[in-house]
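B., you asked whether I could sanity-check this one before it goes into the benchmark set. Here's the sequence:
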Amino acid sequence: MIRTGGVAVGNLTLDVSRTSGLYPDIFMGYSGPLRQLYQSGVIEPQARFFCKNRGVALLVHKGNPLGIHSLADVVRTGTRIALPDSGDVRAKCLAATEQLLGKSAAGALVAAETSFPGSPWHHASRSS
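And here's what the prediction gave me:
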């Protein structure tokens, strides 16, 4: 949207420019896309990185009732996990599991995956 100067919604195209009123004052993103925007002259040279992503984290239920302390604990029997449906975060989760624990553990992680109504990961095609 920033790079092309607009966004299409159906047959409606919204102008995204400094004069349109839709241009952001702040743009946050990963380093790769930010570098591309800088190289194309869309963002100014004084743009700065203010944080680093240390990777994907495990969030557990309050009190950690299942005693999850590592990725290996996630793939054990009875543990359910919610993963994003698509995108680089899902791929990174599965790749990290395969690299750290092996291919069968990555398969077990997917087998332990669950979704629930109202979650961003819920699909009617999945069983809850």
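One thing to flag: Residues 54-128 form one domain. Otherwise nothing jumped out at me.
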